[in-house]
Amino acid sequence: NLDFETAHEVGPGEIVKITAEGMEQIRPANKKMQVCSFLWVYYGFPTSTYEGKNVEEARFSNGFNLAKTDDVEVDCCSGIPDSGTGMAMGYAAGKGVPYQRCIAKYTPTWPRSFTPSNQSMRSLVAKMKLIPNKAMLKGKRVLFCDDSIVRGTQLRDNVKVLFDQAGLKECHMRIACPPLVYGCPFINFTSSKSDMELITRRIIEKFEGDANKNLEKYATTGSPEYQRMVDEIANQLGLTTLKFNTIEQLVEAIGLPKCQVCTHCFDGSSAYTLNEFADED
Questions:
Q1: N or C: which end of the chain has fewer CB within 10 A?
Q2: 132 phi/psi in degrees, rounded to 5
Q3: Which class is domain 35-271?
């Protein structure tokens, strides 16, 4: 709200210097580009736009498209605030069910509850931050939309509260992205940088005896291994049903070519390395 206007969008690897006289390009943009898909799934602010693709529009489309392929019967749809809200509004529109704020966010807490390094602190922040509205939950079949499942600890605790304290009848969870099977080599989703903090890896280790075995099969939507993993996640979290978005639907919602979107954490596809970018110089 400062009346700024976009003058230039900084490209991949580009370096610019801003002065009182204007802008000076220090390093030109690379020809190759892979934008982190998590910008649209989680990190991005709703009004932010990356490479011409608005975050909230992508989240709405994500939910709308997912609803068209989902046959579950629910009374209403709700988002896990904040990053699940746009997807839930899209899902409600696509499904033709009411969108309701079944969970409200108490804002004077940590802005991102998955970011504290200590698990007990993460759980405390999550408990303080998300307040269920019992009047809209009791006896209802509610479908919730959320951005992702990393460790699963917060979601498990929240689901238990919805059933035990709010009287929820059914809890259906829809996730904006595919399961996180591979650790990110750049930003990392966990403070310890250990893939074993991912709920998917812990389940794979439980099934296979080795957390690194058959990862490609578990990451392939629709495979027997994938479905077994998803069913186990739902069981551990106490969900009535659980579905993840597909890479294809996510990329379609973002609106960029697949080659320009990094999906490594979902499918293990090769991400460009810093050396590959440097080779362009």
A1: N
A2: -75, 145
A3: alpha beta
